[in-house]
Amino acid sequence: MGAWGPGLFSDDTACDVRDEYREMLEDGVDDDEATQRMLDSYADALDDPDEATSVWLALAVTQSKLGRLHPTVRDRAIAAIDSGADLARWSDKPRLAAKRHDVLEKARAQLTGPQPQRKKVRRPSRHATDLQPGDVLSYRAANGSMALLRVARIDDERHSIAPVLVALDFTGTRMPSQPELDTLADKPETPFRLDGSPLPPWANASWRVAVFKRTNYDAAGFHRAGRTIARPGDPAFHTRTYTSWQLLPGELERNLTDARATPEP
């Protein structure tokens, strides 16, 4: 059922409904049109008893919080609660079923009670990086070792335009010359695994790094150290790791503490 807990939005479908509806409003779509688009988009889910309640509740509660509760959506959500079908999905987990019951009662009270004033929904500000493909950032750890990260490409997403960084296969204490820099390979990454075993240093060697709470790369201890040549596959390079400039230094510190330094002349 795509749920990982009894919370209203502890559910993949519910989260998708909430986020997609808000994004439509952020883009200036009219209230009624946004509602109709959601119903059209989730028509198959609304025909599935296991998913219909998640869709109706997520849409109704999101609309209610924004002062846009549509009467039809409200009525269908309340009917879904009253049918008992949702609680039936939790029948084999009594403790979670009790928590889900409380969640549904709270949602019912919200939908049937006084509604808030209609709220403006603005598109969130989107930070755009000033880094460019080919830029090389350096980071010096507390032990004096240096890591070099190159910008493989710039990723343009809804909430930010951010660099995708790849660690170069170098750990030393000084900046290499330009010819050396251009010949450095990318660090290999450890294949994703679920066995719980400890990961080696540089298991993750690429990241999409976004600004969080206005902290950019320079404030996090990174410096533009130069530029390097593009590598095959850069325009389509994909990373499995998303992070922020605040968190990346901690990961690099661990890597640079445990990893063996590159021999220097």
Query: Which regions have little confidence, pLDDT < 50, spanning 5+ residues?
Result: 261-265
How many strands in all?
7
Number of helices: 9
Q: What Rg is obtained from the alpha carbons, in whole angstroms?
A: 24 Å
Number of domains: 2
Task: Kindly state the percentage of residues in helix.
Answer: 25-40%
Q: Average the pLDDT over all residues and give the rounded result.
A: 91
Content-based structural category: alpha/beta
Which band does the percent of strand residues land in?
15-25%
Q: Order of SSEs, N→C?
A: HHHHHHHEEEEHEEEH
Overall 3D form: elongated
Largest β-sheet summary: 7 strands, mixed
Beginning-to-end CA distance, first to last residue: 59 Å
Task: Give structural notes.
By secondary structure, the chain is of the alpha/beta class. The chain has two domains: 12-112; 135-258, no CATH class. The chain has helices at 12-26, 31-41, 43-46, 49-65, 71-83, 85-88, 94-112, 178-183, 248-258, and strands at residues 127-128, 135-140, 146-156, 160-172, 206-210, 222-227, 242-244. Strands 1, 2, 3, 4, 5, 6 and 7 form a seven-stranded mixed β-sheet that branches. Strand 2 and strand 3 form a beta hairpin. Helix 4 packs across helix 5 (71-83) and helix 5 packs antiparallel against helix 7 (94-112). The longest helix has 19 residues, at 94-112. Residues 261-265 have low confidence and may be disordered.
